[in-house]
What we know:
It contains ten helices and ten strands. With 324 residues, it is of the alpha+beta class. The strands form three sheets. A five-stranded antiparallel beta sheet has the order 6-5-4-3-7. A three-stranded antiparallel beta sheet has the order 8-10-9, covered by helices on one side. The protein has a two-stranded antiparallel ribbon with strand order 1-2. The protein is elongated and about 115 Å long. The N and C termini lie far apart (91 Å).
Amino acid sequence: IQRRLGRLLHLVAFTWWLWMIADLFLIQDHARKVIKAVLLTEWTVGEITFSLGAVLAFVVTLWIAVWLSRLTEIVLEEGVLRRARIPRGTAATISSMARYGVMTVGFLAAASAAGFQLSQLAFLFGALGVGIGFGLQDIVKNFVSGLILAFERPVRVGDAIEAGGLGGTVRKIGLRSSTVRTWEGAEVVVPNGQLIAGEVVNWTLSDRLRRIQLPVGVAYGTDPGRVVELLVQTAGQHEKVLSHPGPGALFKGFGDSSLDFVVRFWTADFDSWVTIASDVAIAVSEALEEADIEIPFPQRDLHVRSVEPPFERILAGKSSATPA
Length: 324
């Protein structure tokens, strides 16, 4: 707000300074007449008649509307709504709707200041409708999808989502597109139509709980019940692992080189689930080592069916040799 008001004050001060300079040089009246004549000069294009003054009034009014809409969004989202107890993502929706509402009113005010009549606006909207029919279907689809996202809110600002092979956190939801910040740090602009028409996995729509699954393999000959008890106990010792629902471990089956287990546990800290999984994995490794339970590496039995004669003699000689 301070930056924008500073720019506006600089512009007003500069304009006032120019006007005072004109008054000092006694050319203020002449400048007023010249400016008035230029602004009132009219042009006619088809059935529409406009002047430079009308165009300037339209641009200035629209600029003020855009400035006020942005200011309204900032005040609501960063000031008023942040202190209100409302669901996550609602503040962004309300502030965005207020911004677009101010912009709509500002556009109508700018059109009125430029001297446009309702019939002329109807002609403009009719031409826009023809353009939509020829090539703006995607824009209209994304616009309607943006309204659905704003009011139905299947995806909200701050949600962790996966859509179309893209995973990240929603940073902004606009009327045409949304911004998703990926786990690697890139910001991807996604058309709203993809978030509505496609399949979207929302990890944080209702809550920020996350279940973590950690596979573990131990050597054959180990007591499975002892391993299950050790895994549950180790996972439950982490401070960010929930006790309700509590951690659990399952014996999955017999692998090629190991007895396969999986330990599952929940955390409410969705943003740190990768770190939590790493901490629990380290703790499980240390617990298995302290309990003298081996984590095996893959082993294979090799059966030789045919050998070339030179190698066969060498192998035969080694097998018949006696140790010294």
